[in-house]
C-alpha cells in the first residue's frame, strides 16, 4: 500500500513538473506546430510510464534514458527530475553525484543554446532548475538516510530479541542443571541411607541367611546406583575443556560434603526471612502452613527457592520497598501456595544495583512446571508487583 502511494506521488510530481516545463517552452516559442506539441506530450507520457515501471529496479539506467529523452520533449523533464530523486534514494552518493552532474550539465547547455532568452532570463532559468535539483537530491539523500537508520534500528531490535532468547534458553538450561544437582544431592543422601541400613541387615548375626543375601543385593545395587548417579551428574558439575576428568573416571576426588549438602526445606523459610531483614529489607512473613516440617522435602525445597528468588528480585528492582511473603497450604492432596508482593517504586524503574541476567523468573517457571504447578507474576492495579506460585501437594 505504501509503495503504491509513493509511486503515485512520484509519478504525479513528474507529470506536474513536465507540464510546467512544457508551458515554459511554449512561452519561449509562442507558436509551436500542433504535431510537435503532440509528440512532446507522447514522449513525456512514455517517460512517466518508464519512471513508474522501472525506477526501483534500474534507477541509474532509467535516469540516463530519461535524460536523453529531454533532447526531444520538454514534458519529459519532470520524469527526469524524479528519476534523479530516485537515484538519490536508492543508490550510493557516487552514482547520485554522477547522474546529477550529467543532468545539471545538460540543463546549462540547453539554456545556453536558447537565443530567444536574454542573458538575465537564462541565468534565472538555470538557477531555478539548479535549486530544484538541489532540493530533490537533498530530499532523496535524507529519505535514504532515514531508511538506513530505520533498518539499522530494526536489525538492532532483532539482535536484542535474539540475545534475549539466548539468555532465556541459557537461564532455563542453568536452572535445569541446578535442579538436577539438587536432586542428585537428595538422592545421594537417600540412597546412602538405604545402603547403610542394607549393610547393617546383611551383617546382622541374627538375620536369616536369605535376608542377609537379599540385603547384600540391595546394598550392592545401592552402591552401583550411587556410582551411576555420580557419573551422570558429573557432566553437569564441570564444563568441557576446563581440565576436569572424564565423567567415567571413578577415582576423581569429590570435595567433602559435595554430595551431601543439606537442602533447604519449607521450615527454613523463617531463617531466610530473618536473613533478608538483617540485610536491611522490610519483609513480613505470613506462615499459614500448620506443619511446615510435614511438607514433602521436594515441594518445600522448591518453595524455598521461589521465595529466595522473589526476595532477590525485590532487592534488585524495588530497593527499600516493603515485601510481604505469604505461604499457605490445604494439606496433603491439595496445594501449597506462595505469594510474594512488593510495592513498585514511583517514577521510572531504577537501575538494578545488583548484577543479573534478568532471567530469574524463567528459572522459577522451570521449577514450577517440573512440579506440575502454576506461576503468575506481573503488576497489579494497586501499584504492586505480585508473584504467585501454586504447587501441588501429593496425598
Automatic annotation (TrEMBL):
Gene Ontology molecular functions: kinase activity
One Pfam family here: HisKA_3
Source organism, top-level taxon: Bacteria
Record-given protein name: histidine kinase
Organism: Actinomadura vinacea
Coiled-coil regions listed: 143-177
CDD domains recorded: HATPase_UhpB-NarQ-NarX-like
Membrane-spanning segments: 34-54, 63-89, 95-114, 126-143
Residues of the Histidine kinase/HSP90-like ATPase domain: 302-392
Keywords: ATP-binding, Coiled coil, Kinase, Membrane, Nucleotide-binding, Phosphoprotein, Transferase, Transmembrane, Transmembrane helix, Two-component regulatory system
Catalysed conversion reaction: ATP + protein L-histidine = ADP + protein N-phospho-L-histidine
Region annotation Disordered: where it falls in the sequence: 236-264
Catalytic activity, EC: 2.7.13.3
Keyword Protease applies: no
UniProt cross-references to InterPro entries, sorted A to Z: HATPase_C_sf (IPR036890), HATPase_dom (IPR003594), Sensor_HK_TwoCompSys (IPR050482), Sig_transdc_His_kin_sub3_dim/P (IPR011712)
Domain Signal transduction histidine kinase subgroup 3 dimerisation and phosphoacceptor: 175-239
Amino acid at each position: 500500500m505504501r509503495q503504491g502511494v509513493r509511486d503515485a506521488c512520484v509519478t504525479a510530481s513528474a507529470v506536474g513538473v513536465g507540464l510546467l516545463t512544457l508551458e515554459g517552452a511554449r512561452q519561449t516559442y509562442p507558436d509551436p506546430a500542433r504535431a510537435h506539441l503532440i509528440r512532446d506530450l507522447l514522449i513525456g507520457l512514455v517517460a512517466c510510464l518508464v519512471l513508474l515501471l522501472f525506477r526501483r529496479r534500474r534507477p541509474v539506467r532509467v535516469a540516463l534514458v530519461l535524460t536523453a529523452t529531454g533532447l526531444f520533449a520538454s514534458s519529459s523533464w519532470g520524469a527526469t527530475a524524479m528519476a534523479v530523486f530516485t537515484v538519490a534514494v536508492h543508490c550510493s552518493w557516487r552514482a547520485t553525484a554522477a547522474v546529477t552532474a550529467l543532468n545539471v550539465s545538460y540543463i546549462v547547455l540547453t539554456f545556453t543554446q536558447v537565443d530567444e532568452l536574454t542573458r538575465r532570463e537564462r541565468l534565472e532559468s538555470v538557477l531555478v532548475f539548479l535549486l530544484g535539483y538541489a532540493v530533490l537530491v537533498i530530499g532523496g539523500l535524507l529519505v535514504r538516510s532515514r531508511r538506513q537508520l530505520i533498518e539499522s534500528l530494526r536489525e538492532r531490535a532483532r539482535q536484542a530479541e535474539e540475545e534475549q532468547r539466548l539468555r532465556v534458553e541459557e537461564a532455563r538450561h542453568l536452572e535445569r542443571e541446578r535442579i538436577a544437582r539438587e536432586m542428585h544431592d537428595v538422592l545421594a543422601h537417600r540412597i546412602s541411607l538405604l545402603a547403610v541400613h542394607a549393610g547393617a541387615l546383611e551383617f546382622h548375626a541374627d538375620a536369616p541367611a536369605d535376608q542377609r543375601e537379599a540385603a547384600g543385593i540391595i546394598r550392592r545395587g545401592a552402591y552401583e546406583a550411587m556410582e551411576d548417579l555420580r557419573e551422570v551428574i558429573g557432566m553437569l558439575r564441570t564444563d568441557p575443556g576446563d581440565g576436569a576428568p572424564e565423567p567415567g573416571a571413578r577415582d576423581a576426588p569429590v570435595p567433602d560434603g559435595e554430595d551431601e549438602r543439606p537442602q533447604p526445606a519449607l521450615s527454613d523459610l523463617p531463617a531466610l526471612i530473618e536473613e533478608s531483614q538483617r540485610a536491611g529489607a522490610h519483609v513480613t512473613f505470613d506462615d499459614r502452613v500448620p506443619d511446615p516440617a510435614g511438607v514433602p522435602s521436594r515441594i518445600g525445597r522448591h518453595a524455598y527457592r521461589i521465595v529466595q528468588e522473589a526476595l532477590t528480585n525485590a532487592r534488585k528492582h524495588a530497593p527499600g520497598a516493603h515485601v510481604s511473603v505469604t505461604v499457605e497450604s490445604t494439606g496433603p492432596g491439595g496445594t501449597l501456595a506462595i505469594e510474594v508482593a512488593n510495592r513498585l517504586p514511583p517514577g521510572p524503574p531504577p537501575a538494578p544495583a545488583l548484577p543479573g541476567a534478568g532471567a530469574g523468573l524463567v528459572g522459577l517457571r522451570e521449577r514450577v512446571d517440573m512440579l506440575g504447578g502454576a506461576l503468575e507474576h506481573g503488576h497489579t492495579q494497586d501499584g504492586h508487583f505480585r508473584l504467585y506460585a501454586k504447587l501441588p501437594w501429593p496425598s
